[in-house]
Amino acid sequence: MAMVEIKTPEQIAKMREAGLVVAAIHEATRAAAVPGASTKDLDDVARKVIADHGAKSNFLGYGGFPATICTSVNDIVVHGIPDRETVLKDGDLLSIDAGAIIDGWHGDAAFTVFVGEGHAPELHELSRVTEESMWAGIAAVRKGNRLLDISRAIEGYIRRQPRPASGKYGIVEDYGGHGIGSQMHMDPHLLNYVSRKRGKGPKLVPGFCIAIEPMVSLGTAKTHVLADDWTVKTDDGTWSSHWEHSVALTEEGPLVLTAVDGGKAKLAELGVETAPDPLA
After folding, report:
1. Is 216 within the bounds of a domain?
2. 278 within a domain of the structure (yes/no)
3. What residues make up the domain containing 102?
4. What is the number of structural domains in the chain?
5. What is the mean pLDDT of the chain?
6. Could you tell me which of 32, 176, 14, 40 has the C-alpha nearest to residue 100?
7. Average pLDDT over residues 73-91
8. Where residue 105 sits, what CATH number does that domain have?
9. How far is CA 13 from CA 47, 117, 181, in A?
């Protein structure tokens, strides 16, 4: 069975600091994601935010990754590498994944943004469904639940939604959420769907921290990696969305480490009370 790193309240406070840096990266790159900007321009913005906060990048150099954020455009699911050649245009769908380290403790989160105008309604719905499935998973982070309950909540939300014009939502199978803390990627691996082969997974206890990140396409669940050994695309060329937050379970409930308000407003809509912010 996977060994899960359980954090102390003091360590969760450090992860909250890192999470707020990630939130700042999101705010800055969202504003910069306009037609005419290159994905390298967005990476430059992220680098400045990290430096301004006295943080370190946990993406840059990770397994040889050459940038501080992932920029995944349209049919790229995850791990897109920023470059000068990829210039954003009206109608693009862009997912940005970002992370930061404070005093050895990690934050990691992703969001999907609409570039310019001209997006089909099914793209807006794709992003909404992906984001809401993430929040359904976050709402399942409670004492006494198991890892499987998070997977079930994510998949269950997606399966309950009306089908898109393309015919289905593809829940990406080869990538998922992960433990986070003293490293960016740790046990346990979190599937975004229920697998009978994986069992129920570990019990959720105070100090448990997890990055919840559904990736959903307008078609296939199957993907392939390009020759750069990073960029992941859908097999059928359908566009996809990626949303992620890092979450800690405390004695008082969940705390969304990478949300500015700790997840308070959104989880209240779902009937879940968040833990107090250790930095407040």
Report:
1. yes
2. no
3. 9-269
4. 1
5. 96
6. 14
7. 98
8. 3.90.230.10
9. 23, 39, 11
